[in-house]
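WARN retry 2 of 3 for item q-0093 after timeout on previous attempt; input resubmitted unchanged.
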Amino acid sequence: MKKQKSKKILPWVTKDIVLNAVVYVLNLIFILFLFIGAIYINSISSGMKYESWLTDSSNFIHFFILLVLLVALMAGYFFFEDRDFLKNPVNSEMIFLIIEISLLICHVSGNYLNFYVRPLALATLLTLFLTDKKKAVFISMIYCLLTFLFDSLGSAEITIGEYPVMLMGFASSILTVFILENVYSRIKLLFMSLLLSVPAVICVGMMLINTSNSGWLTDLIFSACSGPFTVSAFIILLPIFETMFTKVSKFKLAELTDHKAKLIRKMITIAPGTFNHAIVVSNIAEACAIAINEDALLARTCAYYHDVGKLRRPEFFKENQADGINPHDDLTPELSANIIKSHTQDGYNLIKKNRLPKEIADACREHHGTLPILYFYGKAQKFTDGEVDIAQYCYAGPKPQTKIAAIIMIADGCEAAARSLQDRSRENVKQVVRKIVNERMELGQFEDCEITLKELNIIIHTVVNNLTGIYHSRVEYPKVNLDGIELQ
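OK item q-0093 returned
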């Protein structure tokens, strides 16, 4: 195998630095005003209880310094851990908006409902489903520290101390990440939301057990409601964030793989062969994504839709020619190749038309890269004594830009090749899979994505295991005569 490039890091330009700096400064100012607003509202509702606080400039200076440090910590984390994520200022704005809305909801619910019903894990939950687990854990820390600052310097009155509340919020947030990470159903999420209340109930119960506060039972009940309240707010806010920032959540992906989804229903009806192929490819792609620690649900969804462009002319693709009629028999090789290669762009256009996620549209267009359509190229050579421009028989591309797209390319090619084999022994399947991956490497199809040689070897092993499981040999049953009826 040819050695792959090391991880591609997008170059930064002055514009990127300036835009990110503007986003961070503006949001720092906005959070500062949120804090001042919270103090002012509390000063009114508490009978000017915070009047002295408002006139003491040192309090603002302390808060401002701490806020700057937290914002700088955020910038540093993303710069060193995920520079490509930070490069797009829209991502930074999304993270800040998650934090700001969560702070606002916490302040309002804490002041007008009950302090212990606040959705302290809301920011973590939104970050988890809109980005990934690592970012969610980090944001949970930042958010809990910000909440602590609001509580200790200017939020609702607390009778039992701010430190246990901060720990309660962090415990709920971490629990959110590890319990709800693989939950793809909103109904299931609501049922599991009660688990998020456990840290709150335990903390509040322990803190109130030795107090003479007559409202301890009310506080305990509200703390038990914090989990369902958090999840309810999350379910309302998630579609808004998805629309605003063109993000795709796990819930959306799970809905798109439902057989009742619009384009899936069309494939089942109009192109059943293509749909069955997509099902097999999706199983392989999901296993490969898990093996190299990529988003398995995204890989599965992209595989479901990678050939959706064939809906435009389903009869021109072999898997849909159940009646044995092949319309390519009446066409020139060049026209046939144009029809075949157009399904990638047709799929891209169809996904865009139906307003489905960009990641799926890109997989449609990239899963054949710039590969040649060898069957019709060879056929054209026979008609023209070998004088054929191969560029006319190549897919338009682009080449796979992500590991997910590379996985779809490999799974698609290997499934089609394995289906055509007469001998589907493990050794034979392994040779075919390795040959397909090597060919694509030699043609430079993985040059634009970050996939490594080690990951390609893992993918080869995973694809072989899946294909030999799908196309395993079957026992030949003997014929048996039972009361004059021949059975097999």
